[in-house]
Design a protein that fits this description.
With about 140 residues, the chain is an alpha+beta fold. The chain is built from two helices and six strands. Helix content is about 20%, strand content about 35%. It has a six-stranded antiparallel sheet. The radius of gyration is 14 Å and the shape is globular.
């Protein structure tokens, strides 16, 4: 299977958000661009995305790393979503209500059974890094 068009990826994410599950927390994420193994999205931080300190919640950041990297992995020749085997996030600065966050996922390597991706969350206005995540997924046997 070849990589998907931008419109196809948007439809895929919309279908994920239209189901009764946790992924609905990502309803404010907009896909800006896509190429094979890469996805760039943005999201404005709103009150529903924040912790008690009024900044982007770490759990939502982890969910962004998980889901956006998975969509990037889906947008490869193999197009397998896989299952998570390892994920880590380094939190470097806060994102406040009203700030736009760019989420850039890149597939680093895809082997026979594993895929490795990185995700950077940056402040759209300043370019300052908010968080960086790494995600490893088991793709099953090919």
């Amino acid at each position: 299977m070849a990589s998907m068009t931008l419109n196809s990826l948007k439809q895929l994410v919309k279908a994920m958000l239209d189901t009764p599950g946790f992924d609905r927390v990502l309803s404010k994420v907009n896909i800006l661009s896509a190429s094979p193994g890469k996805l760039v999205c943005e999201m404005r931080v709103e009150e529903e995305h924040t912790n008690r300190g009024g900044t982007l919640h770490g759990g939502l950041t982890a969910t962004l790393v998980d889901v956006i990297s998975t969509v990037a992995i889906l947008n490869t020749e193999r197009a397998a979503p896989g299952v998570s085997v390892d994920m880590n996030i380094t939190y470097m600065s806060a994102a406040k209500i009203g700030e736009d966050v760019l989420i850039t996922a890149q597939v680093l390597k895809q082997g026979r059974t594993l895929a490795f991706a990185s995700v950077d969350l940056t402040n759209k206005a300043t370019g300052k890094i908010i968080a960086q995540g790494r995600h490893t997924k088991h793709l099953g046997s090919s």
